[in-house]
Amino acid sequence: MRDVIAELIPGWDAGQTAALATVVRTFHSAPRPAGASMLVTSDGAVVGSVSGGCVEGAVYELAQQVIRDGRPALVRYGISDDDAFAVGLTCGGILDVFVEPVSQETFADLDSVRTDLDASVPIGVVTIIEHPDARLLGRHLVIRADGVTGDLGSERLTHVVGDDARGLLAAGRTATIGYGPDGERDGEGLRVFVASFAPRPRMLVFGAVDFAAALTRLADFLGYRVTVCDARAVFATPARFPGADEVVVAWPHRYFAEQSAAGLLDARTVVCVLTHDPKFDVPLLELALADGTLAYVGAMGSLRTHDDRMDRLRAAAVPEAALARLHSPIGLDLGARTPEETAVSIMAEVIAGMWGGTGESLGDRRTPIHHSVDVRDDVDSGELV
Questions:
Q1: pTM of the full predicted structure?
Q2: Before 201, cis peptide (omega within 30)?
Q3: Helices in the chain by DSSP H: which ranges?
């Protein structure tokens, strides 16, 4: 929903009905993750994608039908269907797609969802995608850290699902959960889709160098909120880093300590140290490696710089377990030469660490392309969006 809400709101404001198609569950090498959305407006325009082109034609026809009759639909596309290749999902994956009519009548809280998304406030949306009572299909709850808005049809169901959804929102997870018709945790017949919209993950880039300029542009493209920090005011200027959300003049370790103390760093935060100057690097890395929860900590430099840096960190009593979390020299071996190529190398390593990738050529593998995310038995497709 996040990717299409800007185009959805004008029609909603005008009292029109659109159709929102959302991937709610994936299996095998599905081309798009749970949470991917495609919008079909009342005048037939299309925004977004649920499969990167594989089944969009079939989903578009279903969306037009949903707009006409107002009845939500849950459809599976993939190799388990006899007509899988007819609709074009030839990648070997399976998608469950929920298509719902969206209007002021069906989703009265949509405008408040938009407001929170624009303000980067963590918010979740629960949608009933399966229920024995067809009248409850498409009911929503809006989940925030301080409470729940909406009604799923009964007080018990609203309470149980709302409680579970708040836990998923806190973890930044999107998932499908099954219950009994009135929220029985050991029951079946009801499924809800919980979409968690957390603020953009942060990337802290230390060192206002040419490599940082290229890295900030690529990280911004990949959805990170990027901060460039350097103690040298002459280099740390917004004009040099148009891809950064903010440019800070401060000693790196002091800025990191302030952000950590304020609770502004989390398990999705990426730290890239590009200064290769020990007076900046070592105090900063001592703090970053001591954190233990960050998604990624990498430091640029030659092998000689790396060896010297490791010696200094050991002399500062940084434990070996913490040193093992340091990606240095930073990035994957792509043979990169230019700042732009180096940025690709760094982000490739970040992505591999996020999803459990190996960095090897896909052509040399005979295992599934997409790495699975381990979840509880009663929670499916728990993926970040």
A1: 0.66
A2: no
A3: 5-13, 56-69, 84-87, 110-118, 155-171, 210-221, 252-261, 278-291, 303-315, 320-323, 339-355
Place of tokens 């997870």: 173
d(CA 245, CA 225): 6
φ and ψ of 82, to 5 deg: -60, -30
Residues 6+ apart with CB under 8 A from 255: 229, 248
Mean pLDDT rounded to a whole number for the chain: 89
Band of residue 219 on the pLDDT scale cut at 50, 70, 90: very high
Nearest-angstrom CA–CA distance, 259 and 238: 20
pLDDT, one tens digit per residue, over 291-316 is: 999 999 999 999 999 999 999 999 99
* CA–CA separation, 99 and 116 (whole Å): 23
Q: Which of these, 197, 198, 142, 153, lies nearest to 179 by C-alpha position? A: 153
Closest CA to 164 of 190, 143, 135, 134: 143
Indicate left, alpha or beta for 276 from its phi (over 0: left) and psi (-120 to 50: alpha).
left
Q: Which residues pair with 101 in a beta bridge?
A: 19
> Tell me, what amino acid is at 2?
R
How much is the CA Rg of the chain, to the nearest whole Å?
Answer: 23
Burial (Cβ within 10 Å: 0-12, 13-18, ≥19) of residue 129: buried
**Quick one: which H or E segment has residue 100?**
strand 94-102
- Rounded-to-integer distance, Cα 197 and Cα 199, Å: 7
Asked whether 79 and 94 are in contact (CB, 8 A), the reply is yes
Q: For residue 231, what are the contacts with CB-CB under 8 A and spacing of at least 6?
A: 249, 250, 251, 252, 280
CB 288 within 8 A of CB 309: no
* CA dist., res. 281 & res. 261, Å (int): 19
d(CA 310, CA 181): 57
